[in-house]
Specification:
Length: 150
């Protein structure tokens, strides 16, 4: 299915997968833990496999997460993780994003996609790392369309 034939929007299952991953990343920030490049992949049966990429630069880790999604698709899953052929994924990582004034702010970036749909990215600004319940974040804002990995 070509990019032009892909459906727009986000399915409820992808929304839940991405939302759960964002929540996990926010929990890490609240506890002053590092947010590496986090990847979750789900198959049609609802089985989810999680992966963390932390050993290289942020860009290399993000590339590795993208490569893992493609590799899982080619391999029709990850039997060791109980995952059959992947149908949706979400990737979350920390980065600086320019706000409306052009000042870079701490943010969590989220990339997500599903087979047959267009793939998107979004971000959520945050402040108060390590402050537990004092961590504050914005509602996710759209950051644009991405090349689909599935």
């Amino acid at each position: 299915m070509g990019k032009g034939q892909r459906r727009e929007g986000v399915s409820p299952r992808l929304d839940a997968l991405a939302g759960d991953l964002l929540g996990d990343a926010l929990d890490l920030l609240a506890d002053d833990q590092p947010v590496d490049v986090l990847l979750v992949v789900e198959d049609e049966a609802g089985s989810v496999a999680s992966y963390v990429f932390a050993e290289d630069s942020a860009e290399q880790c993000l590339d590795a997460a993208h490569d893992r999604v493609r590799a899982l698709d080619r391999a029709k899953g990850d039997p060791d993780a109980g995952l059959s052929k992947p149908v949706r994924y979400a990737i979350c990582y920390e980065a600086g994003v320019a706000d409306e004034t052009g000042t870079y702010q701490d943010a969590l970036l989220l990339e997500f996609g599903e087979r047959g749909y267009r793939s998107y990215s979004g971000y959520s600004f945050f402040e108060g790392r390590g402050m537990g319940d004092g961590l504050a974040w914005t509602d996710p804002a759209p950051a644009g369309e991405l090349e689909p990995l599935l």
